[in-house]
Design goal:
The protein is 61% helix and 6% strand. The chain contains 44 helices and 14 strands. It is elongated. It starts with a helix and ends with a helix.
Length: 990
């Protein structure tokens, strides 16, 4: 009973799993009760190596039953002829449609028995013979059937040549260009034969009437097995006749071979099918869009009137190679690629090997953009073929040789997968099999000559390779497509190419540089010489130039990069980090092309560069820990001057870190304000401690305890990049000193702190502002708690109570500070709130401030501080409510504007939507003020009205390069207008 199981097990070893397989083998004479026929061992082993042994065997069985008279010959040849065996079995085990052809048309297999297959140059004659019978050309349906048969027969030969090595690995493996070239030649022959049939049908010759221009993959000589053939028709003379010829050609070839697609013609499907040469010239000159010139890169005459086709090619070539001079050309091409990506359904994105991320289009778009940008002057790049162009780009130095080799390898792999997918059913498909489709994955892997690796089955090897190539292509696409290399401006030393200064300037201008000549001077300064530094700059600059081109101010960014590079020329790790960390280069370009402040800070705090690639290092630091580190480091320095130098250095570092994180969108506005306030506070603390020590040494001991009360934005922990530190100094006698001695001691300390921190430097100033003290500038710099209490009780005005709302201990003796705040609480949180006269006084003062302090000519709709709905509007509203209600609502006893506002909503004093409108406007105005400072490099309350500064601010707020910067101003006005309406109700009417 065990005997029948042995042959079945043997069958499985050959890959035959279908129940009908054993009978098919027996009928063919290749299998006996004892197993494989003694003369069929190599044949069965070859069948086992096909992508689908079951499919190959059962199709052969159909061939046998369909042509029993010829079977003996085929059987004999298959046993003896390794080349035929490899060609035929590989096709039958891969393609159901070509297998149907071999089974349905006895003798088709003989095509594959020749020593060499039909030369591609003979395809025209083969197809012409196929549509000829008894010396006359066939017509109608008979001609279509004959053309289809002839086309499929030659397609069978191409597929056999492509796949033979899968079955017999010792046979030569044709290159991708060999296969795509043959497929293209076959398509061209089909077009010419179809046109000949159309001429007979229409009764008119295409010569001097119609030229067929191949576009897309046919024009590039890189067709797939199943692909539309894109064409453009050019007519001469009788255009209606030419149109009938074109329509007939499309119908005949479409029915017999493949779809002929004329959608790339002027105006697309809405345009006329055939145009004259003059009409094409008019259209391309006046109305053509960027993508149409990109498509014309591959235009090539293939059928019809040769002279007319040649004239068309000569007409469009100059247009193609000057397209990069069009305004926003690079951005247009990039936008088009992004649109294509967005149209890929999300559920198919990971499997789409043509249009998805990392797919074939990524390679083609990157190569085409580089061609169009550089090919205007370098004719070696004017190759329609993707692989030929990629090779030329690598040879010319536009693409690194390793990058070019990797991109070619991945492109060839993806095209191979695409071809194998299409061969299965001769269907136009670009979808990689689903992960759970084990059988299809196995067939596809075997069709691609994949073999198991270290215990992994071929299907897993295929999946791994597919993912690896997608990731590689996407990485290189982003590197090349969004940062095209410019040989002229980067001065990469290659023997193959040297560009003139004017050509380089043109390229810079095309990328958006307004002063390309100035940019070239910067480039020459950075890349001249033979030093290692110059060599690395020559590698970096092509990438950086395009990254800067995507910022609001490419020219300013390049100048800043030169300044930073020259300042850090002797810093050993600087260029190495830029070369090895792509994220650092990308972010550096964004920062330099946006901010005038960051380059100055970067020169003095270059170590922040090393953090640019790490979001956590850039934005994840705890402000409290930063403050402790700063105090500890500064406190170790001798004297006030040494402390301030160290504190300034650490502040500069933190200021730059926060600014970078801010512009890169890694910190929200409240986090930015908290971080800036925290570091300012730490600087004050360290400097005060050093000043106290120094004065105590001079005086023979401390004469006073001192505390610093933060006021304004410092007290509210709402500092911006250019904010001063508003403070009050408070003292108390110690060591037997009297009040007068304590005040003198503390005043000396306070003056030392102010002068040390306010000394000129290249960093943003550290101004310690004491103008909010009693009696202002004419009053004493330091007072005791009792003196402050007495002043406020006797002479304090409502505006001073309002200022004290933000009072907070920031430095010095915390216990003394707490006693001071407790002493002023009755004044700033008055029992019973404000009376009507005091409310009118607050309103009067606000109106006076807005009238007197708003700069002449300022636009109040975009003035972040004093404008309508701006910071003052919101803050005065919050503070008026605190003065009125904080005596009975503890939640209003806060220095934070937003917390005070939220308490108003929680307590029902203000509508929640109104409060949210105020907070939204306050945060927007605060960040707009901060970003404007970063962009301009100096404090400014007025938003830029236009130009690159406005564009930079808008980009920092998330608008893309494609958006109108004015949209940001519109948004700002909309938000602040809503807030201003709330202020009118709460501040003036409630």
């Amino acid at each position: 009973m065990a005997e029948p199981a042995r042959p079945a097990a043997s069958l499985a070893r050959f890959g035959f799993t279908e129940p009908a397989a054993q009978e098919a083998l027996r009928s063919a004479g290749w299998w006996t009760d004892a197993g494989a026929d003694s003369g069929a061992g190599e044949l069965l082993a070859a069948l086992a190596r096909t992508p689908d042994p079951n499919l190959a065997l059962l199709t052969l069985d159909r061939v046998r039953t369909g042509d029993e008279a010829g079977w003996a010959e085929l059987d004999e040849r298959l046993r003896a002829d390794r080349r035929l065996r490899a060609r035929l079995l590989s096709v039958l085990g891969c393609s159901t449609v070509l297998g149907d052809l071999v089974a349905a048309e006895p003798g088709q297999w003989r095509r594959l028995a020749a020593v060499s297959l039909s030369p591609v140059n003979d395809y025209d004659q083969h197809l012409a013979d196929a549509v000829t019978a008894d010396g006359a050309q066939l017509t109608g349906a008979a001609a279509v059937r004959a053309l289809r048969s002839g086309y499929r027969g030659l397609l069978l030969e191409i597929a056999a040549s492509d796949l033979a090595h899968v079955v017999e690995p010792e046979l030569d493996r044709p290159s991708l260009t060999d296969i795509t070239g043959a497929l293209t030649m076959l398509a061209e022959a089909a077009l010419r034969t179809g046109l000949s049939l159309a001429e007979r049908e229409v009764g008119h010759s295409a010569d001097e009437t119609l030229a067929v221009i191949a576009m897309g993959k046919c024009g590039a000589r890189e067709l797939n097995y199943v692909s539309d053939v894109d064409v453009v028709f050019v007519g001469a003379g009788d255009i209606p006749v030419a149109t009938r010829l074109a329509a007939s050609l499309m119908r005949i070839v479409g029915q017999a071979c493949f779809e002929v697609d004329a959608a790339l013609r002027p105006e697309g499907k809405a345009g006329v099918l055939v145009r004259s040469l003059d009409s094409h010239e008019t259209y391309y000159t006046r109305w053509a869009r960027t993508w149409e010139f990109q498509a014309l890169l591959k235009a090539r005459p293939v059928a019809g009137d040769r002279e007319l086709g040649r004239r068309y090619a000569e007409l469009v070539a100059p247009m193609v190679w000057s397209a990069a001079e069009r305004e926003d050309f690079v951005a247009d091409v990039q936008r088009m690629r992004r649109r294509v990506e967005r149209h890929v359904p999300a559920e198919l994105a990971d499997r789409e090997l043509k249009l998805g991320k990392g797919g074939l289009r990524d390679v083609e778009f990157a190569v085409q953009l580089l061609q169009l940008v550089h090919g205007r002057a370098d004719t070696t790049l004017r190759a329609p073929s993707t692989l030929d162009a990629l090779e030329a780009l690598g040879a010319g130095g536009y693409v690194g040789r390793v990058d070019a080799a990797e991109l070619r390898e991945s492109y060839e792999f993806l095209r191979m997968v695409e071809h194998r997918l299409q061969l299965r059913g001769l269907r136009r498909t670009h979808l990689f099999p689903e992960p759970g489709d084990a059988e299809e994955l196995r067939r596809l892997a075997r069709a691609g000559a994949m073999r198991p690796v270290r215990g992994k089955p071929e299907s897993e090897v295929l999946i791994s390779e597919f993912r690896r190539h997608l990731l590689r292509v996407r990485r290189l696409h982003e590197k090349l497509f969004y940062r095209p290399l410019l040989e002229a401006v980067s001065r990469v030393p290659t023997a193959a190419l040297r560009l003139t200064t004017q050509q380089a300037a043109n390229r810079l201008s095309a990328l958006g540089y307004l002063a390309p000549d100035g940019a070239l001077r910067h480039i020459r300064a950075l890349t001249s010489g033979v030093s290692r530094r110059a060599a690395i700059q020559r590698t970096l600059l092509p990438v950086l130039l395009d990254l800067l081109a995507d910022t609001a101010d490419p020219d300013g960014g390049l100048l800043a990069y030169r300044r930073v590079s020259e300042a850090l020329a002797e810093t050993p790790w600087y260029l190495r980090v830029l070369r090895d960390e792509a994220a650092v280069v990308e972010r550096l370009a964004t920062l330099l092309g946006t901010s005038n402040l960051i380059p100055d800070l970067l020169v003095r705090a270059p170590e922040v560069l090393q953090r640019l690639s790490d979001d956590r290092a850039l934005a994840g630091r705890d402000p409290g820990e930063v403050a402790r580190s700063l105090r500890a480091a500064a406190g170790r320095q001798p004297g006030v001057e040494g402390t301030v130098v160290a504190a300034r250095s650490l502040r500069r570092h933190e200021l730059l870190r926060v600014a970078c994180a801010d512009l890169l969108g890694l910190l929200d506005v409240n986090s930015v304000c908290l971080a800036l306030s925290s570091v300012w506070t730490a600087v004050l603390q360290a400097t005060l401690a050093a000043a106290v020590r120094a004065r105590a040494d001079e005086a023979g001991g401390e004469r006073a305890r001192i505390t610093v009360i933060g006021m304004g934005r410092l007290g509210g922990e709402e500092l911006g990049y250019g904010s001063d530190a508003d403070v009050l100094f408070v003292c108390e006698p110690v060591g037997g000193a009297n009040d007068s001695e304590a005040v003198r001691f503390a005043t000396s300390v306070a003056e030392s702190v102010r002068s040390a921190l306010g000394a000129p430097s290249q960093d943003p100033p550290l101004v310690v502002d004491t103008d909010l003290r009693p009696e202002g500038r004419s009053g004493p710099l330091v007072r005791t708690v009792d003196s402050y209490r007495a002043y406020y009780a006797r002479w304090g005005q409502v505006w001073e109570a309002q200022a004290l709302l933000r009072g907070r201990v920031v430095a010095g003796d915390a216990e003394l500070g707490d006693r001071f705040l407790a002493a002023v609480d009755p004044f700033r949180y008055p029992e019973g709130g404000l009376d009507a006269a005091e409310i009118r006084e607050v309103r009067r003062i606000k109106a006076r401030v807005e009238t007197e302090r708003l700069p002449k000519g300022a636009d109040p709709t975009v003035h972040t501080k004093l404008g309508r709905g701006g910071l003052a509007d919101v803050e005065w509203t919050a503070q008026l409510m605190q003065l009125r209600y904080a005596h009975r609502i503890p939640g209003l006893r806060t220095t934070s504007t937003s917390m005070a506002l939220r308490t108003l909503a929680a307590e029902g004093i203000a509508d929640r939507d109104d409060v949210e409108a105020l907070i939204r406007a306050w945060e927007l105005a605060t960040r707009a003020r901060n970003v404007t400072m970063l962009v301009k490099g100096k404090p400014s309350d007025q938003l830029p009205a236009s130009g690159r500064e406005l564009a930079a601010v808008a980009r920092a707020f998330g608008l893309s390069a494609d958006d109108d910067p004015g949209e940001f101003l519109d948004r700002y006005r909309r938000v602040t207008r809503r807030a201003h309406a709330v202020v009118q109700r709460l501040f003036y009417e409630s």
